[in-house]
């Protein structure tokens, strides 16, 4: 937690829930009759509404991209090193909008939200989302905020896919598309890793067909394994070797199946910490959206 707010921080910020009482048709054939998006904004929107930047998050991201919610926060938002006064996305110049996507688990309508048709959490009944669905909801958000054109849409990984989709679906509504560490579609190997992750979750005996909240349970083992698989894909072999190598956690082998290598310790920590803070149904939804994204397929496999 900070003793003082750094001069280049956006400071203390407060999330805002925006409700949309209009239907959103989805690619899966279903629709959301109404929904909520959780957002944060940093900086000031100029009179011409021409300085707005949209931040699209990756698989496990959310709306809290910069600053602090309180002085008790252990760390700032997930992209605080890039968003703030004098930083690459300079809040002295730009009005920055970050949101939690539909299907997320940090305040926007998703699997943990109340389903008005059943009176329970949506759980596995929440519709499957696509990147195009997210961008459609983000366009509705832009309309709500009075933003006809973004100065830039920015995103990494799954967020980069959303940025690309913006440039295809609404080219007149953004001046710049900043795509970081992303791709126009996943490879077969990427899809395979996602499937292993999903199977780890769905095979957990606490998953209960996705209705674990009704059983007052969480599939923590499965979600933790899924996160471990994910982290293997986030680092190249060279990067992983450089960061961890074959370093042992303790001196010498213990000749058992507890943690021995530093890479094992890293993966277990990531899995255990993530499994208590993220929703398993959301993880399934996000990985499937990654799998489906392939905008070139609508244009003769050419962008």
UniProtKB/TrEMBL annotation:
Residues 51-258 form the AB hydrolase-1 domain. One of its GO terms (biological process) is homoserine metabolic process. SUPFAM superfamilies: alpha/beta-Hydrolases. InterPro entries: AB_hydrolase_1, AB_hydrolase_fold, HAT_MetX-like. The keyword Zinc does not apply. GO terms for molecular function: homoserine O-acetyltransferase activity. It comes from the Eukaryota. Keywords: Acyltransferase, Amino-acid biosynthesis, Cytoplasm, Methionine biosynthesis, Transferase. Pfam families: Abhydrolase_1 (PF00561). Gene3D superfamilies: 1.10.1740.110, alpha/beta hydrolase. The keyword Amino-acid biosynthesis applies. Transmembrane segments: none annotated. PANTHER family: HOMOSERINE O-ACETYLTRANSFERASE (PTHR32268). Belongs to the AB hydrolase superfamily. MetX family. Homodimer. This is AB hydrolase-1 domain-containing protein. The lineage of its organism: Eukaryota, Metazoa, Spiralia, Lophotrochozoa, Annelida.
